[in-house]
Design goal:
The protein has 97 residues and is mainly α. It has helices spanning 3-9, 23-42, 47-73, 86-96.
């Protein structure tokens, strides 16, 4: 899922996406980033194309792990839930009126 697709899922507009992720969403995001960093460093990537390939590989590592957890736990990791405080939710409702 792209960041924009993720923002739509969570019904966010300008808010920071990470601020509204649950623990597992953050963990799998960090796994993808850490995997990408390790792959890029170990392969001594240079330039955009090689780094893009490393990013795809890192994304694949996190995706496989996420799908495996979803299969074994029978629940999705990515959810439309977000973590706006009740006060912020009430403010947003009032702004729409």
């Amino acid at each position: 899922m792209t960041p924009n697709e993720y923002k739509k899922l969570k019904r966010l507009k300008k808010e920071n996406l990470r601020d509204h992720m649950n623990d597992l969403e953050l963990i799998f995001t960090m796994l993808g980033e850490a995997s990408t960093t390790r792959i890029a460093r170990d392969k001594d990537t240079k330039g955009f194309i090689e780094n893009k390939e490393a990013a795809t590989e890192g994304e694949t590592v996190a995706g496989i792990a996420r799908r495996e957890l979803e299969h074994r736990s029978i629940r999705k990791v990515s959810t439309p839930e977000n973590y706006l405080s009740e006060t912020e939710k009430k403010k947003k409702i009032e702004e729409k009126r």
